[in-house]
Amino acid sequence: MSDAPGPLAIFPDQPVPAEFDLLCEHCGYSLVGLMVDRCPECGEPFDARALPLARVPWLYRKRLGRMGAYVQTLRLALFAPKRFAGELCRPVRISELDARRFRLLTIHLAALGMTLGLAGLLQHIVGIWPPRPSSAGMIALCLGAWVMTLLFLRMATDLPTFIWSGMPGRTYDLSPLHQYAAAPLALLLPAAGVFVGLVFMLSSVMASPAGLTETGTLALSGLLAVVLGWAWVTALVFMRTATRCSFVRVAMLGLYLPLHWLMMFAFVWLLVAAVAYYGAQAYEMLF
Length: 287
Hints:
Elements: H1 61-64, H2 66-79, H3 81-88, H4 96-126, H5 136-156, H6 175-180, H7 188-203, H8 209-243, H9 247-286
Helix pairs in contact: 2-3, 3-8, 4-5, 4-7, 4-8, 5-9, 7-8, 8-9
C-alpha cells in the first residue's frame, strides 16, 4: 500500500482510496483483512465493527502527515464545501476533538497573518524594521494585536448550539462541521503576505506616509472582508447541506453570523479597554 496521498474520493459510490482504508488510529497501520482485534504494528486494540472514520484528510494525519493532511482538508473545505459537508453526514465516525484541533490550528494561522499584516503596515509608518530595542512600542502593539485577534477568532468561530435547535438529529452532532467551517480563515496568512508585498511596493512610489497609511488600511480591510465573506458563505453551505433546512433558516443564520462576529469583536475591545484602564491605574499607584 502506497504512503503517498492520492486524489481525494469522498463519494459513496467510488472506491475508497488507499489512504482512507481502515487504518489504526494510533499508528496509521492498515487493518484491512485482519482477523484479530489488535493492531499488529503497535498493539492498540480496535473494533472492526465500528463505523469507519469520515474520509476527511485531517483525521488521517498520522498517515498523510500533519501539514499534508491539513492542506488537503483546507482545499476540500474551501473549494468543495458541499462534498465536505456531505461526507460528514454519512454514517461515519467524526472526531469532535480532531475538528476542534483543526479549528484551533486555523485560527492560530489566521492570527499570525493579521499580526504580520499589521507589522508590515507599521514598518513603513514608523520606519523601524527589523525591530530594535527602541521599537519596543511597536513590538508590544503587534503582540497585543496577536492576542486580541486570537481571542476574537476563538470566540467568533465557536458558534453556540442554539442556532441548530430544531434541526434533525442531535445539535452537538453538528459541532465538528461548524469547527471545520473556520477553514477560510487560514487564508489570512497568505493574504498577509500579499498585503505586505503591496505595502512595500506602494512605499516605493508613494512619498506621503498618510497616503500609504490610507491605502494600506483600505487594502488590509479589503483582504479581511474577502476572507470573512468566504467564511460566511462556507458556514451557510455547510448548514444547508447537512440539515436540508429551509432557505429562511439559512437566511437567519446568514444574518446572525455578522452580528455574532460584531458582538465578539465588541467584547474583546471592551475587555482590552478594561485591562488597559485598570493596568494604568495600578501603574500610577505603584510608581
